[in-house]
Write a structure and sequence with these properties.
There is one protein chain. With about 280 residues, this protein is α+β, with helices and mostly antiparallel strands. The chain is about 20% helix and about 35% strand. The protein has 3 helices and 15 strands. The strands form 4 sheets. Strands 1, 2, 3, 6, 9, 14 and 15 form a 7-stranded antiparallel β-sheet that branches. It has a 4-stranded antiparallel β-sheet with strand order 4-11-7-8, with no helix packed on it. Strands 5-10 form a two-stranded antiparallel ribbon. The radius of gyration is 33 Å and the shape is elongated. It starts with a helix and ends with a helix.
Length: about 280
């Protein structure tokens, strides 16, 4: 009886134990680096929440969260100049590589923008103070999370020469969560500046050239500081169900089978003994 009982219990355990494959074991060699940003230095992390903008020149622009980039243009400055006519500024600094972690911003937190921009020429329409009629556009700086525009800041108060531009935006409730698959950030800078420099005689010129120049993020000349909520970096927020998959439970039929086998192992020998009396 004892042998039959033990056999039945072992069979029951085999039925209710889930079979899984591809189990991974984390060893000491696979420990995470001490610096959370070391593995992905261009991604945001607990100690790295400022977005920086970079460029190789006129055609390639990008952004990321590392405060340096060796591909950045020498001199750390974008420059556009034209003697006569309109310069159309439409820079899009989209994060590359694309955003990996999900981001959750602090409620009522402020995004802080810092830029240094040089201007020359005219950019205000129909003010009788330059060549612009209906073909110019004043400075606008925008931040987008994917297709969602977080803020578009109109900046009419800039002047000729270098402008130190600092402004903030308080986040609303629908702007707090940035999903990694749909919330890749972009910084957009738009403006139309017009020049009217012309040769009026063999030795004289009149009017002004159009010039738009901007410092990039080297030496913190341009940056967007994000109020990322510290709980963003928790394992629970970043991976929730993926890191804690539900444990498979034995089905109803399996439990019924276990009960039947156990009952058979215990009571059948007893009934045989009683019948032999």
């Amino acid at each position: 009886m004892r042998g039959r009982f033990l056999f039945t219990v072992l069979l029951a355990l085999m039925i209710i134990t889930p079979v899984t494959g591809n189990n991974s074991v984390v060893t000491a060699e696979e420990e995470e680096p001490a610096d959370p940003c070391e593995a992905e230095p261009q991604q945001p992390c607990e100690n790295q929440t400022t977005l920086y903008i970079w460029s190789t020149g006129q055609s390639s622009h990008w952004a990321h969260f590392n405060s340096s980039d060796e591909r950045n243009i020498q001199g750390n400055q974008l420059q556009n100049e034209k003697n006569s006519g309109v310069i159309n500024i439409d820079y899009r600094f989209t994060m590359k590589p694309a955003l990996l972690p999900k981001l959750n911003m602090t409620p009522d937190g402020e995004v802080r923008f810092t830029f240094n921009i040089f201007l020359q020429g005219d950019w205000t329409n129909n003010d009788n103070d330059g060549p612009c009629q209906a073909d110019c556009e004043e400075l606008n700086i925008s931040l987008l999370s994917g297709a969602n525009e977080i803020v578009r800041q109109h900046l009419p108060g800039v002047t000729t020469g270098w402008n130190s531009i600092i402004f903030t935006h308080t986040l609303e409730e629908n702007e707090l969560f940035w999903d990694s698959s749909t919330g890749n950030p972009t910084v957009a800078i738009e403006m139309k500046v017009k020049g009217d420099r012309q040769q009026t005689s063999p030795i004289t010129v009149s009017g002004e050239i159009a010039n738009f120049s901007m410092k990039l993020s080297g030496e913190d000349s341009a940056k967007i500081e994000l109020p990322i909520e510290p709980s963003t970096w928790s394992v629970e927020f970043q991976a929730e169900e993926e890191l804690n998959p539900p444990v498979e439970q034995p089905g109803f039929l399996a439990l019924m089978s276990v009960g039947a086998l156990t009952m058979a192992a215990v009571y059948m020998p007893m009934s045989r003994k009683e019948s032999q009396k």
